[in-house]
Specification:
Elements lengths: L3 H22 L10 E6 L2 E7 L4 E4 L7 E5 L2 E4 L10 E6 L4 E7 L6 H4 L9 E4 L4 E6 L10
Antiparallel strand pairs: 1-2, 1-9, 2-3, 4-5, 5-6, 6-7, 8-9
């Protein structure tokens, strides 16, 4: 049989669980407009695309890691010393979205099958190439760890 102290413990656990769920689902703002795309390799930002300016800003020393083939199509070389490793990123300035079209990272190439970035805070991650492509917007800070 349940004692009064059991019910109190169950009530406290339930309140904590509800508070956590509300914090996760209600506290998230998934409708922030996309203002740009940030590209990072191995935790280091190598470039940012700004939709308002319509151009890619490449960090100094990272020029060899990006090349543009067509309008809006960028090839990312995660290892500047190895041009055989690549991801092809298409940035659609009109639709304000970005997606990986092609990659040679693994047999599955999971980054290619990930959904396009359409809102701030969304990401495409290529683990074998240590590549993170994230949507940035006003008031959206990149996630941190540690």
């Amino acid at each position: 049989m349940f004692r009064k102290s059991d019910w109190i413990v169950y009530a406290i656990v339930a309140v904590i669980a509800i508070a956590l769920l509300l914090g996760v689902f209600v506290g998230r703002d998934n409708d922030r407009p996309l203002t740009g795309i940030r590209i990072s390799v191995d935790g280091k930002m190598i470039s940012e695309y700004d939709f308002a300016a319509g151009r890619m800003r490449i960090e100094a020393g990272c020029e060899s890691q990006l090349s543009q083939s067509d309008s809006g199509v960028w090839t990312i070389y995660p290892d500047p010393d190895d041009a055989s490793a690549y991801n092809v990123l298409r940035i659609d300035a009109q639709a304000r979205c970005a997606r990986v079209e092609q990659a040679n990272c693994s047999i599955g190439a999971d980054c290619v099958s990930m959904a396009a970035i359409r809102k701030a805070g969304q990401m495409i991650v290529c683990v074998p190439h240590a590549l993170v492509i994230e949507g940035i917007g006003d008031g959206v800070e990149p996630p941190t760890s540690g």
